[in-house]
Amino acid sequence: MQFGNGTRLMVCFHGFGDNAAAFNVLEPSLKDRYTVVSIDLPFHGETNWTPGEPFTPEQANALVDDLMSRFNVKQVSLAAFSIGGKIALKVFETNPEKVEELWLFAPDGLKNNIWYNIAVYPTWGRKLFRFLLDRPKFLIGVVNLLKATTVFPKSFAQFLIHNVRQRESRERVWNTWIGIRGFEVSPRRLNELLKVSQTKCHIVMGQHDPVIKPRIGRTFVKGLPNAELHLIPRGHYIMKPYLNDVIARILDR
């Protein structure tokens, strides 16, 4: 998906269960300054992907490099929403010199999620996760029990309960989480890179977001001269027309 005729190239990565068209809503604020290319992630939109085949940081970087070559630019702006934040942040982490800007909307990746890590990294964790996904009623019961504890985030529980009821959805959870497990980033390393790089980082988050909580953004930008956190009175899904006003204010400063 592509729109805009600006001199800067922006490559976008959407969130879980969405597709490249999610960024169409931002055309009013971006079209004059950027040429925007939005990507369908594996197991989403029109991207065909073989279950079990990983999507790697090397492939993401090659994709960005190809677009930079095609549009004849030396640097790129990366935009991402939610889980797409992992992709954008990993591209930056591995090649910070080619990233001019980061536009992160309620992004995943600013803080490691221990429950996600358990589900996708150790072999025993993947086996347990697969076992539970194949028994959705049992999984929902377990999640409901864990939800009552302080160690299991309620937002994570709600995500699982919502997405494991239907077979297609739970297979997307499995394939996506396992497929992008190579995109885990180090928040400390990102912090170090942003301190010494010229990359500008704009983070927009909902004040009432139960998934990526504002305090994560506040902690991340602390001490970073080129990073800003913009809080808006919304929840997690902020890919809506009102976001254009926020972006326009940032761009017009």
Structure description:
- The structure is a single chain.
- Helix content is 43%, strand content 16%.
- It is of the alpha/beta class and 253 residues long.
- It has 2 domains: 2-112 and 185-251, Alpha/Beta hydrolase fold, catalytic domain (Rossmann fold), CATH 3.40.50; 114-179, no CATH class.
- The mean pLDDT is 94.
Helices and strands, with pairings:
Layout: E1 2-3, E2 8-13, H1 27-30, E3 34-39, H2 57-70, E4 76-81, H3 84-94, E5 99-105, H4 114-120, H5 123-133, H6 136-147, H7 154-163, H8 167-179, H9 187-196, E6 200-206, H10 214-221, E7 227-232, H11 243-251
Parallel strand pairs: 2-3, 2-4, 4-5, 5-6, 6-7
Antiparallel strand pairs: 1-3
Helix pairs in contact: 2-3, 4-5, 5-8, 6-7
Short description:
The protein is an alpha/beta fold.
Strand content: 15-25%
Structural class computed from helices and strand pairing: alpha/beta
Give the strand order of the largest sheet, numbering strands 1, 2, ... along the chain.
1-3-2-4-5-6-7
What sequence of helices (H) and strands (E) makes up the elements? Answer: EEHEHEHEHHHHHHEHEH
Question: Percent range for helical residues?
Answer: 40-55%
- Bulk shape: globular
Q: pLDDT under 50 segments (min length 5)?
A: none
CATH superfamily of the largest domain: Alpha/Beta hydrolase fold, catalytic domain
What is the total domain count? 2
Task: State the name of the first-level CATH class of the largest domain.
Answer: Alpha Beta
